[in-house]
Design brief:
alpha+beta
Length: 186
């Protein structure tokens, strides 16, 4: 037992200076501070794939009124499209948006004539453009070297396109020349 204790003390004496210096320091046990914006950046990077995709809708039926753009962009989509807030340093410079109000209005609602789209086929492009006005209070805050806080009412306008395709069934022969022109190029 005495021999085992001597070997353990010798091993500890040799390994202690090695483990406490350079790359071998006990870095596994030291907490690493992670800024709050890291998780927000990951959500921005890996989520919301449908924001940049064009949905394909069923064909527009003849004899019925054309479809309207009735679904305005939701508040989350509008807030993601706003300019990004400056990343601050806690207690030194922080920026916030408070009292957010979003007002949407439809600017464009029109349907193009049918044409050929690769990977889709003959379809009609339905343009839905929205003007989104965002009213908010910008708060800039600092706690060092002297504490201050400033609040300003701000207005920011974001244009959002919610274009989508409507499939087109070639029922009549008058549209074939336009579609063949799109396919062949002349």
């Amino acid at each position: 037992m005495r021999k085992m204790r001597q070997w353990m003390l010798l091993a500890g004496g040799v390994l202690a200076p090695i483990m406490s210096s350079g790359c071998y320091s006990l870095g596994y046990f030291v907490p690493i501070p992670v800024p709050a914006w890291v998780s927000e950046r990951m959500v921005e990077k890996y989520s919301f794939d449908s924001d940049h995709r064009t949905p394909i809708m069923p064909p527009i039926r003849e004899g019925y009124p054309p479809p309207l753009c009735e679904d305005p962009p939701d508040q989350a989509t509008v807030l993601r499209a706003l300019t990004k807030i400056t990343r601050g340093i806690p207690y030194l410079y922080e920026e916030f948006r408070d009292d957010i109000q979003v007002v949407t209005e439809r600017v464009v609602d029109k349907i193009d004539p049918p044409r050929f789209f690769p990977l889709v086929g003959p379809a009609q492009l339905h343009h839905c453009h929205w003007k989104c006005t965002v009213y908010y209070t910008e708060t800039i805050e600092s706690g060092w070297p002297f504490p201050f806080q400033t609040r300003k009412p701000r207005v920011e306008v974001v244009m959002i396109d919610r274009d989508h395709l409507h499939l087109y069934t070639c029922d009549n022969n008058k549209n074939y020349p336009a579609l063949s022109k799109d396919l062949v190029g002349h």
